Amino acid sequence: MNSIRLLRRSLSLVVALTAPALFAAEGKNCGCDCCKDRPKGVACCCNEPAATPAATAKADDGIKRYPLKGVIMSVRADLSGLSVKHEEIPGVMRAMTMMFKVDAATLKVAQKGQVITGLMSRRGNEWVLEDVKFVGK
Ligand SMILES: [Cu+2]
């Protein structure tokens, strides 16, 4: 009985290790951890492209990015930036209000008072905020 259980366990381990790749090729739900909560027949998540290929590429560019949370104090379209009152970034920056360059899409939807998270990095003498997410008011 125990040996059967052991055999089943090691079998499922082998399946768990090999199935994602196999099923990924077929585009089927393989039952691996990431597929667990999905209905059967849904393409395996192992087969999906990375959620943010751009972010991955960015992470390889050698620029250090730090997660930040803050509140938009003003939207400065004239500077392509946001004035953000951000929390302390331990070891990097105390809590303060400062300007961040953001992309046009972010600038367009940003509003004063919004709580945001993002990744800040230094570019020359400017600070840039990327992957801006609006998390509340
Ligand atoms: Cu700062």
- Main beta sheet: 5 strands, antiparallel
Measured distance between first and last alpha carbons: 58 Å
- Secondary-structure-derived class: alpha+beta
Identify the quaternary structure here: single chain
Distinct ligands, ions and cofactors found in the model: copper (II) ion
CATH topology of the largest domain: OB fold (Dihydrolipoamide Acetyltransferase, E2P)
How many domains make up the 3D coordinates? 2
Return the CATH architecture of the largest domain.
Beta Barrel
Fourth-level CATH superfamily of the largest domain:
Copper binding periplasmic protein CusF
Unreliable runs: 49-57
Largest beta sheet: strand ordering: 3-2-1-4-5
List the topology elements.
Layout: H1 2-26, H2 53-59, E1 66-76, E2 81-86, E3 96-101, H3 104-109, E4 115-123, E5 126-136
Antiparallel strand pairs: 1-2, 1-4, 2-3, 4-5
The protein binds copper (II) ion.
Residues 86, 93, 96, 98 line the site of copper (II) ion (CU).
Textual characterization of the structure:
This protein is α+β, with helices and mostly antiparallel strands. The chain folds into 2 domains: 2-48, no CATH class; 60-136, Copper binding periplasmic protein CusF (OB fold (Dihydrolipoamide Acetyltransferase, E2P), Beta Barrel), CATH 2.40.50. It is 28% helix and 31% strand. It is built from 3 helices and 5 strands; from the N terminus they run ααβββαββ. The protein has helices spanning 2-26, 53-59, 104-109, and strands at 66-76, 81-86, 96-101, 115-123, 126-136. It has a 5-stranded antiparallel sheet, with no helix packed on it. 16% of the residues are buried. Mean pLDDT is 78; it is low at 49-57. Bound molecules: copper (II) ion (CU). Copper (II) ion is lined by residues 86, 93, 96, 98.
